[in-house]
Amino acid sequence: MKRWIMVSNRLPLSHDPITGETRLSSGGLVSALTGIRNNINKLWIGLDPKSEQLLSGKEGEIEYQGVAVNEDLYHLYYNGLSNDVLWPLFHYEGGMVHFNREEWQAYRDVNQLLANSINSLIQDDQETVWVHDFHLFLLPAMLRKLRPNIRIGFFLHIPFPSSEIFRQLPVRDEILTGILGADLIGFHDYSYLRHFCNTIYSLLGINSDMVSADYQNRRISLGAFPVSIDTASFQEAAKQPIVERLRRKYKKNYQVILGV
Q1: Is residue 103, in this structure, part of any structural domain at all?
Q2: Measured by CB atoms within 10 angstroms of the end CB, which terminus of the chain is less buried, N or C?
């Protein structure tokens, strides 16, 4: 059976302090990815900066594996470079950006740590690694160097800014070449894809047709893929007796709004 290795900043788990149970959280990324068809084995890898004993196990159809990282290093990578530089800049808040070389080195080190860990867990080159979000921009290229023949996907869950905004980054070229290590690069919206294509042309001279781009003797697929949810599971949940009772209870005085 095929296996997809999904990689994100943290494992999609929540811990109940009362029962001690660990279970899948209810975030948007989890909702989107748990809808992947069931005939594919799934391993989810994420950083684990605090646990004395690394989290590993299985929840439902998803296996998970934590990767140990020094807490101070994680702080520089996550609270520093990721959230103080990349997040505001990609949301057009350049005035809030404070670039720091120490944080950038931490960002590189953590991405390399994950690349090494994933490499040790890959069973063969028929597996697919799916990298998620702006915390891991460098990971596709780092993993490509270790595993030239592996299939790598990258999906960005935030906007990709215009080239005029992106070029403010001192490390812009390394971030772009990091992303371009993937075989498939996806965005939520067509405008984000257009910004990315304009950026790789203006900064790296790479032509694209919004569908693909050629880089280092590879054809990289590009696309806009608005993330959906597993509609069948929501429909089943809506039929549960407790949901129906709550619906009748609140129907007279309230409007029900469903959010995911």
Answers
A1: yes
A2: N
